[in-house]
Amino acid sequence: MAADFVLKNGAMHIIETVDAATEESSARKLVSDIAVSALVLEQSRMNFGINNTRSKIVFDISSSLDRLAAPSLMAAEHQGAELFNWASDEDRKRLIESVTNLAIPYEDKRRKNSSVIHTSRQSRFRLN
Q1: What pairs with residue 15 in β-bridges?
Q2: CB 84 within 8 A of CB 91
Q3: How many other C-beta atoms lie within 10 A of the C-beta of residue 29?
C-alpha cells in the first residue's frame, strides 16, 4: 500500500484522498476508497507508531453520496484520522494551514544549537 502524500516533520504526516465529486461515482467505489484509505492510515500507524503518526483524509464527495459516506468517514475519524471536506471553504483553509505549518522547523532536542556557526557574525575571511 502507498499513501497519497507523506511528510516527516517531527512525526509522519500521512494524507489520503477520496475523490467522488462526480455524479457518476458509485456508492460501492466510494465506500471502498474510504476503506482503503483507512487501511493505509492504519498501516502507517502500525509502522511508525500511534504517537508518531498524524493521519488525514481529504475527501470531495458529490451531494448524492454524502449520506452514504458519513458512516465510513466517521469510522476513519474514530480510528484517529482528521477529516477535511474539500468542498468546504473552512475545511480547505484548515487543511492548507495545517500543511503549511509543517514547513515550520520543529526543535530537535538532539541537536545542539551551540555548534551552529553563523557566518554572518564572522569576519570576512574567518568562516571557521
Answers
A1: 5, 56
A2: yes
A3: 13
The three three-digit cell numbers of residue 75, written as one number: 469510522
φ and ψ of 77, to 5 deg: -65, -40
Candidates 32, 41, 29; CA nearest to 1 is 41
Q: What is the pLDDT of residues 36-73, one digit of tens each?
A: 999 999 999 999 999 999 999 999 998 889 899 999 99
Q: What is the pLDDT of residues 97-124, one digit of tens each?
A: 999 988 877 666 665 554 554 455 545 5
- 3-state SS assignment for residue 12: strand
For Cα atoms 75, 15, 51, give the angle at the middle one, nearest 5 degrees.
75
What φ, ψ does residue 59 adopt, rounded to 5°?
A: -130, 150
Inter-residue contact 43 to 68 (CB < 8 Å) = no
Q: Are 26 and 19 in contact (CB under 8 A)?
A: no
The whole-angstrom separation of Cα 65 and Cα 81 is: 20
3-class secondary-structure state, position 88: coil
